[in-house]
Amino acid sequence: MTSTITGRRTSAGDGPSPVRRSLSAAMPASSGAPRRPFVILIVALLVAGLVLVLLINTANAGASFRQSSLQQRNDTLGIRQQQLAQQVDTLDTPQSLSTAARRLGMVPGGDPAFLLLLPDGASKVLGSPAPATAPPPPPPPPPDKTAVSKKKPATQHRGTAHPTGHPTGHPTAHSTHTATHQPAQGGHR
């Protein structure tokens, strides 16, 4: 800034005055006491930051292991789902359904009859209903020749053998068995 009154040029920032220069040179350098709390604070923040990073990394590693475990379980369940879907597709074929129905004793139905509802509320039967008939059961398998030869022939005592296994056809007191039902103790009566 220039002054017009005196004609001298003065500036606010021309530098330190000679008094200040001598004061700053005469002051002793600051001691380590004010720096110590600041250094301790910085070191504590660094240690806390490192501990926090370690904890976050540990948590991420645990989550990563859990994620891979769940991914493997998901893959296993996906494979199981595909197997079950394939099994359903196999069992859903007409041949499989027919075989399963025959095993359950079901028989194919005959020609169906239909009811036709007329506009006046009456009904009319279309077709002739007939009950389903079961095919004859398959013949029993032939007896095993080795099983027949291993059986001991029945020994006959006086007379001919009867269906009871006793020669006279009358069972003795020792060979009779009465089937009476007696509830077990503590059971339902």
Low-confidence stretches: 169-189
Rg from alpha-carbon coordinates: 54 Å
Please state the average pLDDT score: 74
Helix content: 40-55%
Number of strands: 2
Distance between the termini: 123 Å
Could you outline the blueprint of secondary structure elements for this entry?
Layout: H1 18-26, H2 35-91, H3 94-103, E1 114-117, E2 123-126, H4 145-150
Antiparallel strand pairs: 1-2
Describe the overall structure.
Residues 169-189 have low confidence and may be disordered. The chain is mainly alpha-helical and 189 residues long. Strands 1-2 form a two-stranded antiparallel sheet. It is elongated and about 110 Å long. It is 43% helix and 4% strand.
